[in-house]
Amino acid sequence: MEATASSPSVQGTQGFAWLMWFCLARALFAMSTVTYAASLPLLKQDWHMSGEAAGLISSAYYFGFLISLFAVGFMSDRYGAKRTYLGTSLVAALSALAFAFFAHDFLSAFVLFGLTGLFSGGSYTPGMHILAEHFPSVARGRAIGFYIAASSAGYAISLALSSWMLAVSGWRTAFIVTCSGPALGMVLGAWVLRHVPNVIPPPSPHRGEASMLQAVVTNKPGMLMILAYTFHSWEVLGLWAWTAFYLSYVFSGGTATVAGASIGAAVTALAYVISMTGSISGGMLSDRWGRTAVIGLMSTLSVICSFTIGWLVTAPFLLVVALVFAYQFTAIADSPVLSTAQTELVVPRYLGASLSLRSVLGFGAGSVSPWVFGLLLDWGRGTAGGSTTLGFGLAFSALGLGGLLCPVFIWWLRRLPEARRMAGGLR
Questions:
Q1: Strand ranges (E), 186-257
Q2: Using CA atoms, how far apart are residues 389 and 182, in angstroms rounded to an integer?
Q3: Residue 425 to residue 158: CA distance in whole angstroms
Q4: Residue 2 gets which letter from DSSP?
Q5: Is the confidence at residue 151, as pLDDT, over 60?
Q6: pLDDT at position 404, please?
Q7: CB within 8 A of 393, min separation 6: which ones?
Q8: Which whole-number Å values give the CA distances from 201 to 70, 193, 215, 413, in the listed order?
């Protein structure tokens, strides 16, 4: 079934139950994302990796993911978001399983986890594109908030399963079980979308990707939102890659133990549950208070956490856990708002191209962030007079330096008259 963007068949909202099923499919796809991070304390030792090498594997995933998102954005514009979503599901499932069964050292993990990221974008931006087609602006923040919260739910489920399996049967079993999620998501996604039309936007007077990108780049409000998202991604993706390892280190005092890895994964799973409330709260609050107000507040609080948490390696574990929870909540609370605002600042014909450019810049920055974190961690620990506290302090502060630019671009956008397009005029 296909329809144009103006077809009555795609106007109005889908039911809440439909949204929840669609979000569950997204959660299943997301399960493979943090599989590596959950096992990192043990893999770093088993595969004899430095912090820089460990960060490079996470960077490979995010670099592959950004290429995927760039491609699927244009595919959504040309062939429809539904068709793109369904078409990429199979390769996403196969690549995740290949990583689970065959990764055995740095090089194989670098290649296979990078391929997993390369095929994983089809359930992300095309999914948001589908929601933008079906939910009006006044309710879109809530819908996309739930969708991004579903990603956090997938991360939490993956980490919870990993925490148990690391202690019982090792990281390989944890890989296989959690990387089976995308296959289940593929089946569920196809079922949820079986009656949803494939919307193809009307033809544009501009032909070719270059013309579409030019239309996006010359849209000043949209570009400010893209730049804000870029530095948001730098902070968040670095946080996601290293949280479980950091908690494991704090708990075990720097020793790579199964118990430490298990506790780190379990607490990080709880942190992702907290971040789910952040996604939902951020989306709903932005419908009431305005997009820029919520993004500015949450991104500022997140940056404060970035500049604080790394220096608390020797603090009581429960204090560190509380700060990690606050960090996860604030770091993700503005994510659905940034995505919702993008759909309001860009005309439908160029939304896919806009999301593609956003993905390249955002996940480009995010793919470098885990590597820089690991590099600074190694340097801080190895430099003369250095320590683990210095390493983690510098690494997390680097996330904060990038994240600091997010609220700067948001307050700039807030001053523009085009900001009234968002949240029914609330900015």
A1: 198-199
A2: 37
A3: 39
A4: E
A5: yes
A6: 92
A7: 310, 311, 313, 380
A8: 18, 18, 15, 27
Residue 329 CB contacts under 8 Å (≥ 6 apart), including other chains: 274, 275, 277, 278
Secondary structure class of 198 (helix, strand, coil)? strand
How many separate helices (H) and strands (E) can be counted in the chain? 18, 2
H helices present in 334-424, as ranges: 335-345, 351-382, 388-403, 405-414
Burial tier of 318 (Cβ tally within 10 Å: 0-12, 13-18, 19+): exposed
Rounded CA separation 383/39 (Å): 27
Rounded Cα distance, 30 and 182, in Å: 7
Burial of 227 (0-12, 13-18, 19+ CB in 10 A): buried
Long-range CB contact pairs, 105-110, < 8 A, 24+: 105/47, 106/47, 106/49, 106/53, 106/56, 106/57, 109/36, 109/43, 109/47, 109/57, 110/56, 110/57, 110/60
Point out which residues pair with 198 in neighbouring strands: 2
d(CA 373, CA 370): 5
- Determine the CATH number of domain 19-196+209-425: 1.20.1250.20
Question: In the 3-class helix/strand/coil scheme, how is 330-354 assigned residue by residue?
Answer: HHHHCHHHHHHHHHHHCCHHHHHHH
Between 7-16, 124-133, 138-147, 395-404, the lowest mean confidence (pLDDT) is in: 7-16
Please, which residues have CB within 8 angstroms of residue 192's CB and are 6 or more apart in sequence?
Answer: 18, 21, 22, 25
Domain segments of the chain: what residues? Answer: 19-196+209-425
Distances (CA, A) of 34 to 188, 324, 356, 426: 21, 16, 23, 36
* Calpha distance 367→110 (Å, rounded): 13
Task: Residue 207: count other Cβ atoms within 10 Å of its Cβ.
Answer: 9
pLDDT in tens, 38-93: 888 888 888 988 888 888 898 888 888 878 877 887 787 778 888 889 988 889 99
Distance of CA 23 to CAs 193, 285, 301, Å?
12, 20, 27
